[in-house]
Specification:
33% of the residues lie in helices and 28% in strands. The protein is of the alpha/beta class.
């Protein structure tokens, strides 16, 4: 048997691309969109189907330009934080906006299908990546792809001691005639570090979400009673259009880089989620821009690895420790932050674009004793 010929035939049969993007979620599609009609040939390998996709809402303050503004389905110029009193956060300069992931998927899929340089494969889980001097082999159950670079968004098993667990209802036909005020955090219901999040949309529907920061992962059924009770007490009767449940590991540690040459983590896998808030969408956009620059030979700095990003991660680690150990005081700290600082400073801080002066203002207005106490603990024990 001519094994040399068999090996040659095998390599000829392998599908070859310049770049593989593993995962067609927010980060994978964001990167692919920016590479449409570029000179590189790209494959997207998605383990799930095209039709059975989890529908989400991504929200953010309008602090960074991105190419998906036409998909935004609301724009709020103020939002409230409710605790011992109600604080109104002015969003006139940086509107609070949202995008429906279903519309995002539809928009980008249509662009991909019309493109000449991107192929997308659904129901295609990746079994193994093998890197050598000639490139990267991507092993599937019944196929092999050969590529030069991989951008991998598959979720890691993140070692976290805290989780953000949430259940949200998209509702309409609300019986209350009162205007629905948007609420970033409504802390008024219990003593845990949990809150209700209310976002009205242009079509008179709204999202009401119960969010719980906890060391334990709760099921959607365990959160349902609290969410139902809150909506009935604040809005009356309602109709559920759809629901959304999720678990986000909350950790201030950056994930370990891939050991394989030319394999890059993207999205949540890479640490794009803000450690203390769960905000991710704009960080993904910034990261996609960085990698496109890199692919095109333009030098820039990874936005997740700047000195400022590292400072924010340290601060997030301190706050997560306080949330875990003293949830009541954590709510006091959050409420105090909104009450004691300029609205634009807060928005820039929560959106990962604060100036050094913004960071100093936030720190100066923190309760000193508890902040220093947990800063010392974070130095002694770095795990959170």
């Amino acid at each position: 048997m001519n094994y040399t010929k068999l090996l040659k035939d095998f390599h000829l049969q392998m599908k070859k691309y310049d770049i593989a993007i593993i995962g067609a979620g927010c980060s994978g599609l964001s990167l692919a969109y920016r590479l449409l009609e570029s000179k590189v040939n790209i494959c997207i390998l998605e383990s799930g189907s095209q039709t059975n996709r989890i529908r989400k809402t991504w929200s953010y303050w309008d602090v960074h330009q991105h190419p998906f503004t036409e998909l935004e389905n609301n724009s709020l110029n103020s939002i409230n934080i409710n605790y011992s009193s109600s604080i109104k956060l002015d969003c006139d300069k940086y509107n609070y906006k949202s995008i429906d992931s279903q519309q995002y998927d539809k928009y980008i899929f249509e662009k991909i299908y019309a493109s000449k340089n991107i192929d997308i494969f659904f129901d295609t889980p990746v079994d193994e990546l093998i890197s050598d001097d000639k490139g990267i082999q991507i092993k599937l159950s019944n196929d092999v792809f050969k590529v030069n670079e991989v951008y991998d968004s598959r979720p890691d098993n993140i070692d976290a001691s805290m989780y953000q667990v949430f259940l949200g209802y998209y509702i309409d036909s609300i019986s209350s005639t009162d205007k629905i005020n948007p609420r970033l955090m409504d802390f008024t219901q219990d003593n845990n570090f949990s809150f209700y999040y209310v976002i009205p949309f242009k079509d008179n529907s709204c999202l009401v979400e119960y969010t719980f920061f906890t060391p334990k992962i709760y099921t959607s059924d365990e959160l349902k009673k609290n969410l139902d009770s809150y909506i009935k007490s604040t809005m009356g009767q309602y109709n559920i259009i759809r629901s959304e449940y999720g678990v986000i590991p909350m950790t201030s540690k950056l994930p370990v880089l891939d050991s394989l040459k030319n394999v890059h983590k993207i999205g949540i896998r890479s640490g794009a989620t803000r450690a203390s808030t769960g905000y991710t969408f704009l960080n993904i956009q910034k990261q996609s821009e960085f990698f496109v620059n890199r692919i095109n030979g333009i030098h820039s700095t990874n936005p997740l690895l700047t000195i400022k990003a590292k400072i924010l991660r340290k601060m997030d680690g301190i706050l997560l420790r306080i949330i875990k150990n003293e949830p009541k005081k954590a709510k006091d700290i959050i409420s105090n932050m909104f009450a004691s600082n300029n609205d634009q400073v807060i928005i820039r801080f929560l959106s990962d674009i604060p100036s050094i002066f913004d960071i100093l203002r936030i720190i100066i207005n923190m309760p000193k004793v508890i902040f220093i106490k947990y800063a010392i603990k974070s130095i002694i024990n770095k795990k959170i």
